Amino acid sequence: MKLIYYPGCTLKNQARNFDVSTVSSMAELGVEVEELARWNCCGTVHALGSDNIMNRVAPVTNLIRVKEAQASEFMTTCAMCYNTLKRANIDVKKRPDALETINEFLYQEETKYQGDVDVLHLLEYLRDRIGFDKLAEKVKKPLAGLRVACYYGCLLVRPKEVAFDDVENPTIMEDLITALGATPVQFPLKTECCGAYHTVDKPEIIAERTDKIMGSAHEEQADLVVVSCPLCAFNLDFRQDDARRLNPDFYHLPVLYFTQLMALAFGCDDAALRFDLHHIDPQPTLAGRGLA
Amino acid sequence: MNTTLRISSSRLGGTFVAKIEKISGQKLLACYQCGKCSAGCPMAAHMDVLPNQIIRMAQLGMEKQLLATRAIWICVSCMTCNSRCPKDIRIAEVIEALRQTVLGTVNRADHLKIQELSPEAIGALPPIALISALRKQTS
């Protein structure tokens, strides 16, 4: 069984730990993941203006590449890529005139996009195609005693037409974490925005957001926070020093991708985890639970 | 001191209101100012004008004041307001239309001055941060 996989730009840069842990843990589940040939940046954000057809070209080009790979669906793990690709797909399916304009613009492409590709997020693939009960059978090293705060951020669950779980109180990551043997904690801020791209020129906003979100996870006695978005990961992990400057009582917590916890529970080696890419090293926390 | 307040409907159906409604695809007058968007906005603390006030100002055609606010650049399109609005108004789309209006002016008023960041700062940022910041804040 081959599954077409769209990694996106950041998984080939700062978030290589997200990429390698995805591929390794899928291999453990018996799913052969094939990276989409000639993929390009999705654009990272969906253009909300109805007249902005230009920003839909990048995602649609990727949908064409999926068709060229003889596939009718593909999977991505990055929440921003998922949201951008999914929304562009929904939009051009609803607006044949916009799709025609994009296909005309892409006149050098041999394949025309006709709205015939489905965009999947890895979490929904794991839940709906594999099943968390089957996934649990592959666990070699249960994450017993590990207290995990599952952070969804914005783009996995908003807007509702792209959400694969409840908009206000999603639980899909908690269900996955439970299957891996860990304990999910209550986390009231799990869908609160991290401040996203303000990290570029307004780091003071990210410091305030990180302090609030990570502080909430700490209050619930979480050992670590898991995410599905490389921008959330960057803000909540790499901006913790700024949060500490803002609030001297800020408590540092590691931030991991959900795929890293899968790889850990499936017994994958260090090369599949890449803890060297983290700002806050997860290893002492994991060692404290007998997991590293 | 005497203050004269003149109430006029002349701007309500003006070109600015029509333009924002068209780009955003939203009916501004559907808003009845419940304030739910501002109550849940994670960026509200950093805004000079709150999301419900942005909608009110847009309804009233207050073009100049609205396009000069800091708030339209602070909104990061997290969609919390959209998912909670009882009238199904997509506030984030309205704010994007306002940003697009500024960015589409003759002098292309880019809000993010990427050239002012050091190469080290840019190098440390993930591509996803840079691309989204540029897409939202530059023409």
How is the secondary structure organized here?
The complex is a heterodimer of chains A (292) and B (139).
Chain A: E1 2-6, H1 16-28, E2 32-35, H2 57-68, E3 73-76, H3 79-94, H4 96-105, E4 118-121, H5 122-130, H6 132-137, E5 147-150, H7 172-179, E6 183-184, H8 203-219, E7 224-227, H9 230-238, H10 240-246, E8 255-257, H11 258-265, H12 283-288
Parallel strand pairs in A: 1-2, 1-3, 3-4, 5-6, 5-7, 7-8
Helix pairs in contact in A: 1-11, 2-3, 3-4, 8-10
Chain B: H1 15-24, H2 36-40, H3 51-59, H4 63-67, H5 71-74, H6 80-84, H7 91-103, H8 119-124, H9 127-137
Characterization of the model:
- The complex is a heterodimer of chains A (292) and B (139).
- With 292 residues, chain A is an alpha/beta fold.
- Chain A folds into 2 domains: 2-122, Glutathione S-transferase Yfyf (Class Pi), Chain A, domain 2; 141-288, Rossmann fold (3-Layer(aba) Sandwich), CATH 3.40.50.11810.
- Helices cover 41% and strands 10% of the residues of chain A.
- In chain A, helix 2 (57-68) crosses helix 3.
- The longest helix of chain A has 17 residues, at 203-219.
- Chain A is globular and about 55 Å long.
- Chain A starts with a strand and ends with a helix.
- Chain B is an all-alpha fold and 139 residues long.
- Chain B folds into 2 domains: 15-103, no CATH class; 112-139, no CATH class.
- The model of chain B has no long low-confidence stretch (mean pLDDT 93).
- The chains are: A alpha/beta (292), B mainly alpha (139).
- Chain A binds chain B through residues 8-10, 13-15, 41, 43-45, 47-52, 55, 78, 80, 154, 158-160, 167-168, 191-193, 195-202, 205, 208-209, 230-231, 234, 238, and chain B through 22-25, 42-43, 45-46, 74, 76-80, 82-83, 90, 92-93, 96-97, 100, 112-114, 117, 124-133, 135-136.
